[in-house]
Design brief:
The chain is α/β, with parallel strands linked by helices. The relative contact order is 0.16. The protein is 39% helix and 22% strand. The protein has helices spanning 17-34, 55-63, 76-87, 128-137, 162-177, 188-194, 214-229, 232-237, 243-257; strands spanning 45-49, 68-73, 96-100, 113-119, 139-150, 156-158, 198-209, 263-274. Strands 1, 2, 3, 4, 5, 6, 7 and 8 form an eight-stranded mixed β-sheet that branches. The protein has a single domain, classed as Rossmann fold, CATH 3.40.50.
């Protein structure tokens, strides 16, 4: 769900203009749930790993007025988009630094930051443990880190949609085969403990939409279609799926979106930990 780079770490969603717009919509749609327990009070120097187009950066700066955010990403394309998005907002002015960098070899001295933020990023990395170790190195004692990650096995949609399920499994297989981990949310506790963090806590969060919120349900299903279709070209090229299945998935999503009794469910995991 995030953004890394071309090259060494394939990004399953691609780098199109449509994908950059989707990342901004995604950040806004998940903001209420994702930030419900995040607290950076007293933090001034925050490292954001995998800042992508700056969608989460904008939220961080808006919610926590004392922050200066240093955002890193491997993709110059995404960093250019982030600069464009952030520079147009007055409240972000002079409060962020963007830098092209490898999260497994951060170009910062020890204890450079007093907090860190990672969201939808470790799922795309072949060495998440090394990333968390590097992040801990550049954090000061007492620093807090929040990590939010996917748990793709939790996805559920009703009515039953067989093409969608086949496509979803192909999506996850491709991400796993190219070095990512679509189930990494469940592993965050172990990863943080192994990385030397303390006071590790995890919380399972979810988006559960049914007839109680029909408008939001329809909006989420439309968004989910964009998420899935962003990977279609890669999946077909890799032989993980075919155009018939992709088109069948689209038709099923459109039918579910208009079904008066549709159900959408997706869970993810948010972890928090401290550095001593």
């Amino acid at each position: 769900m995030s953004n890394i780079a071309k090259g060494d770490f394939p990004y399953i969603h691609g780098f199109s203009d449509e994908e950059q717009s989707r990342l901004i919509r995604q950040a806004r749609m998940f903001e209420g749930t994702l930030f419900s327990h995040i607290d950076y009070s007293g933090v001034t120097r925050l490292l954001e790993v995998g800042c992508g187009v700056g969608a989460q950066t904008e939220i961080l700066l808006r919610r926590f007025p004392d922050l200066h955010v240093t955002g890193i990403d491997r993709s110059p394309i995404q960093l250019a988009a982030a600069e464009h998005n952030l520079s147009s907002r007055a409240w972000c002015e002079s409060r962020y630094t963007l830098r092209q960098a490898d999260a497994t070899d951060l170009p910062f001295p020890d204890r450079s930051f007093d907090a860190a933020y990672l969201c939808w990023v470790l799922e795309h990395m072949p060495s998440p443990a090394r990333v968390l170790s590097e992040v801990r190195r550049v954090l000061s004692p007492g620093a807090v880190v929040y990590v939010t990650e996917v748990l793709n096995s939790s996805f559920f949609l009703d009515p039953y949609s067989p093409n969608l399920l086949r496509y979803w499994m192909a999506f996850n297989d491709h991400q796993y085969d190219t070095g990512g981990d679509p189930f990494i949310g469940a592993k965050l506790g172990n990863l943080l403990l192994a990385g030397g963090y303390r006071d590790v806590r995890t919380e399972v969060m979810n988006i559960h939409l049914d007839n109680r919120q029909p408008g939001r349900r329809k909006q989420m299903i439309e968004f989910w279609e964009d998420v899935l279709l962003s990977a279609a070209e890669q999946l077909i090229a890799a032989g993980k799926t075919d155009a018939t299945t992709a088109e069948g998935m689209r038709s099923e999503l459109q039918a579910v979106r208009n079904d008066p009794n549709a159900v959408f469910f997706f869970a993810f995991v948010q972890a928090t930990a401290l550095v001593y």
